[in-house]
């Protein structure tokens, strides 16, 4: 069984992004970029499935600019066998990515597609769901445990009230939550090995997909600044302030 793992190149989670002065977006020039953390978890899970003998091949896919190759090399250093870059300089929105992934699903016929539950840059939480709809595949989102056997995946999902366990027949789409696993550190020998692994590049046109944005960003602004806190002398004053100033009780 092949496992396809889409990985997105995003601003590193340690970077504090700044909004551009013209409010058109955030400034990502000269900012450290890394693999979306949920996608690292997805690669780790796919590699573990391969190590258990459940998966036969792990294919990492990234859609975007040429530098996404670095993200794909990281995926291969974790243990993905090969990678595909769908290269474009166009701004990619979740629907466009889902259409590109659907074309690759048709071509590669994976038994499982494991995506991150959301990308930490746009926080969309849409691509996996859209892919499942376009490819007409069952989906299990926000997975904290995945067990694959007999052409089925048993997926434990993190939902508001606790945990829900679903069974989906394969092929299927799964999206990862934080607690699914702890990704391994990539070692230098594996980084070196990853340099030699196969990385194919295709264009959206080769997959017959129009990736033009369908949504227009009107404005991006900084969150409102938080006011300074105050120290209160006792509980009575705190309760008083919560009642009269904050008006929350
Ligand atoms: P989103 O719907 O944008 O929050 O992204 C959810 C997941 O879709 C990510 O965690 C990735 O697994 C995948 N994804 C989104 N954008 C891309 C991209 N440009 N290339 C590869 N995978 C992507």
TrEMBL record:
SUPFAM superfamilies with a match to the protein in the record: Adenine nucleotide alpha hydrolases-like
PROSITE patterns: ETF_BETA
Cited SMART domains: ETF (SM00893)
Gene Ontology molecular functions: electron transfer activity
A Gene Ontology BP annotation from the UniProt entry: carboxylic acid catabolic process
A Pfam match: ETF
Keywords: Electron transport, Transport
Domain Electron transfer flavoprotein alpha/beta-subunit N-terminal: residue ranges: 23-211
Cofactor(s) in the UniProt record: AMP
Key word Transmembrane helix present: no
CDD domains assigned to the protein according to its UniProt record, in alphabetical order: ETF_beta
Gene3D superfamilies membership: HUPs (3.40.50.620)
Keyword Electron transport: yes
Description of how the protein assembles with itself and partners: Heterodimer of an alpha and a beta subunit.
Protein family membership: Belongs to the ETF beta-subunit/FixA family.
Role played: The electron transfer flavoprotein serves as a specific electron acceptor for other dehydrogenases. It transfers the electrons to the main respiratory chain via ETF-ubiquinone oxidoreductase (ETF dehydrogenase).
UniProt name for this protein: Electron transfer flavoprotein subunit beta
């Amino acid at each position: 069984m092949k496992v396809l793992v889409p990985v997105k190149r995003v601003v590193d989670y340690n970077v504090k992004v700044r909004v551009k002065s013209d409010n058109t977006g955030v400034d990502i020039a000269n900012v450290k970029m890394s693999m979306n953390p949920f996608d690292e978890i997805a690669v780790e899970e796919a590699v573990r499935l391969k190590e258990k003998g459940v998966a036969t091949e792990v294919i990492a896919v990234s859609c975007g600019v040429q530098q996404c190759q670095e993200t794909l090399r990281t995926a291969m250093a974790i243990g993905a066998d090969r990678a595909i870059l769908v290269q474009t300089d166009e701004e990619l929105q979740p629907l466009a990515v889902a259409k590109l992934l659907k074309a690759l699903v048709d071509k590669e016929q994976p038994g499982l597609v494991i995506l991150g539950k959301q990308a930490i840059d746009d926080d969309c939480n849409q691509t996996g769901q859209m892919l499942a709809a376009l490819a007409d595949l069952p989906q299990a989102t926000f997975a904290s445990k995945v067990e694959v056997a007999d052409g089925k995946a048993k997926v434990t999902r993190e939902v508001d009230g606790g945990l829900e366990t679903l069974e989906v027949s394969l092929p299927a789409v799964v999206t990862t939550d934080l607690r699914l696993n702890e990704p391994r550190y990539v070692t230098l020998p594996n980084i070196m090995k990853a340099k030699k692994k196969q990385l194919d590049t295709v264009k959206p046109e080769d997959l017959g997909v129009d990736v033009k944005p369908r949504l227009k960003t009107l404005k991006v602004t900084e969150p409102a600044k938080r006011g300074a806190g105050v120290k209160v002398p006792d509980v009575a004053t705190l309760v008083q302030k919560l009642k009269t100033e904050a008006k929350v009780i």
